[in-house]
Amino acid sequence: MTTAAVARPAARRRGAAVSRWLLPMAPAVLLLGLFVAGPILWSGYVSFTNAALTGAAATDPEFVGLENFRRLFADPALWHSAWVTVVFTVGSAVIGQNGLGLLIAVLTRHRNRLLRNTVGIAVVSAWVLPELVAAFALYAFLNPEGTLNALLGAVGLNEQDWLYSAPLLAVILGNVWRGTAFSMLVYQAALSEVPTELAEAAEVDGAGALRRFWHVTLPIIRRSVLTNLMLVTLQTLGVFTLIYVLTAGGPGDATQTLPLLMYDEAFELDEIGYGATISLVLLAVGALFAVVYARTLREEV
Amino acid sequence: MSRRSSSRLVGALLGVIALLFAAPLLWLLTASFDAEAPLAAAVPGRFTLDNFEQVLSWETSLRPLWNGLLLSGGAAVVSVVAAVLCAYPLSRYRLRFRRPFLYTVLFATGLPITAVMVPVYSMFVRLDLVDSMLGTTLFLAATSLPVAIWMTKNFMDGVPISLEEAAWVDGASALQALRSVVLPLIVPGVSVVGIFTFINAWGNFFVPFVLLLDPAKQPASVGVFAFFGQGGLIAYGQLAAYSILYTAPVIALYLMVSRSLGGAFTLTGAIK
Question: Cβ neighbours of residue B251 under 8 Å, at least 6 residues apart?
Fold first, then answer.
């Protein structure tokens, strides 16, 4: 992968040493510095102030030291949100998207084209839609007068207001519906690289389908599983729009994940400084996963 | 269980999965053509194109779609240009900071961007960039840059350096070699990067929702939401019609990408 600077006249190469990488890389570095690293550092600063949307604290925020952090960690809303976030992420990303994506990839392997494409199109459609449209479609689907209840009613089951009676389950299933395509595509690509001879040899030795999967296939696609788990976890930690449209964090605070809590504190309750503190916590959790993710891919660089 | 019956069982299971995934989307289609659209998917009682006609006005849909095009198109162009320029030295030269730089970029691809929206807003207030379409475009470009750089570098690594040597011998500079030798070979890959940036920006709701307050500057993603949040009676048929207008470009672009390159291929650049 590494490509050397190759045989070029030594004098020219030295003369252009800095400019030949500095100039081309400058736009990207500037953009990343200003709009990605900048906000992260800025949130570090803002979280030590009482910055607000309106009033005196908006134009001239005061330095308040660790006050936001003290308040945050004593705030039951934070711990509740952290818990909801864990349930949402484990339920919809780790178990839901990852598990269902793997299952679909395994089941569609070696199936006829028609079936494979039908499933593929249905699953990918939910994923390709703009997040807001997907959220509307789900909102209509789960509404008391929506398609789900119409279907349930048709087979004689109880109709109910899903977003009210089972809000957390509803947003978890919503996120599974929306995000499974990603895991499915990752696993379909990974499985296509597993040589069939291995599984066949194991079959000759008398291993059943489950054992073949566990002992032959899974070890080969291990890296894809790790990468996928990391990515879907990170994507799910940041989910905002889906929950905002479906339940806006409610009813009460039943579906208030950390991004929703952050939004509420900063923009609904006008406390930018406090909101930035929550965003630091969220970033820290994300960074932790991102480090593990970057490390598992280390040898690729 | 015999092989045939287990194969039937798997087939049935896959059929159910496909139906469950398609079910929520059915409503969008049926409601948009229904004069009195209910919230459940149903064959339109009175088939009509009225819903589309009613939302097709400058203020309701055309301006937001145009704004979305400016924001997402701008982000895609900026992101692709910056990524190509940045990836070239990373792919071609032996730089001391190459590895740390690539780790940092890889790390940044994983950060949840949602988490920075509060500090970004507060920073934009200070820089007087709230309600600036240029600022929002640059932010959208920057957030997709890590993945774009990563993918572009992978594509460039696939181009043998011996091709450039010939150009160098002829006296071409590095940038000339990039433009005339490398770039033509990675056009398919780079267009995937551009299209993905566009699709992501087009579908992004949270970023413009926070950074653009003036309805005249908001893209379709926020425009649809205003429609939804108007309170009182929501005209579901119009909402569905608007959603379809707003979704169509994304579907078209996605089909283009997956046709020419295969769905899985597009992921390998970011994932592998």
Answer: A128
